[in-house]
Specification:
This protein is an alpha/beta fold. It has 9 helices and 10 strands.
Length: about 220
């Protein structure tokens, strides 16, 4: 029997960041985010001063990113909302959770939403997007470097990428050798990796000082 990270002694507990970081498979992700979707923006993003989506959006636009954009692991649409405020679009969203995508649609910033398990690929045509962006999805309990090939398939040659990777997750999940292989194979170019804070003033808890690397590069 599967044991979900927020189930203890059969008592249903409120989903939180620690539960999200403890995820181990897609089924657990679907269940946790189904429960979290309605309260995510208020109970997590606002309360913890979650500034990563805005940082990723700004980095993407500053690097010359343009639409059409695929927002990977879009969740409730925080990164898409930030991109729209910066004048970038059109934007499509993809996420494993239909409940999170439902919340994203309410923000009225997406052209389309695509429910998908990214470990199995993204059901879009090759070369569909001029930009790929992702905030908060490449982290503990979520996606690793193995899905980069799926994202490259969806991107046009010359497409700009801006993908945040939790700094500790980057070290543990082999992102450095994965990017090295992509560079040596000339699949990508112009890789830079600025480090940013994930949370602003007012954040509390053991993860309040966490940082992320924003992988900025183009598809060759």
């Amino acid at each position: 029997m599967a044991v979900f990270p927020f189930d203890t002694d059969m008592t249903h507990q409120k989903p939180d960041l620690s539960a999200a970081y403890a995820l181990s498979n897609s089924e657990d992700s679907v269940r946790l985010y189904a429960d979290w979707a309605n309260s995510y923006d208020q109970s997590f993003a606002k309360q913890q001063a979650y500034i990563l989506p805005e940082a990723v959006a700004r980095a993407f636009v500053h690097a010359g990113g343009r639409g059409p954009v695929l927002d990977v692991g879009a969740g409730t649409g925080l990164c898409g909302e930030a991109l729209t405020k910066l004048g970038c679009g059109p934007i499509d969203a993809t996420d494993i959770s239909p409940e999170m995508l439902s919340q994203a649609l309410r923000k009225d910033v997406y052209r389309d939403v695509i429910e998908a398990d990214l470990t199995e690929g993204v059901p879009v045509p090759r070369n569909a997007y001029a930009g790929i962006i992702s905030s908060g999805t490449f982290t503990h309990g979520h996606l690793g470097a193995e899905v980069l090939s799926h994202l490259l398939r969806a991107a046009r040659p010359g497409s700009q990428f801006a993908i945040s990777i939790n700094t500790k997750h980057y070290d543990k999940q082999g992102f450095a050798p994965a990017f090295d292989r992509l560079l040596r194979g000339q699949w990508i170019r112009n890789l830079t990796m600025p480090e940013v804070r994930m949370y602003g003033e007012g954040a509390t808890g053991e993860h309040s000082n966490d940082t992320a690397l924003i992988a900025l590069f183009q598809k060759s």
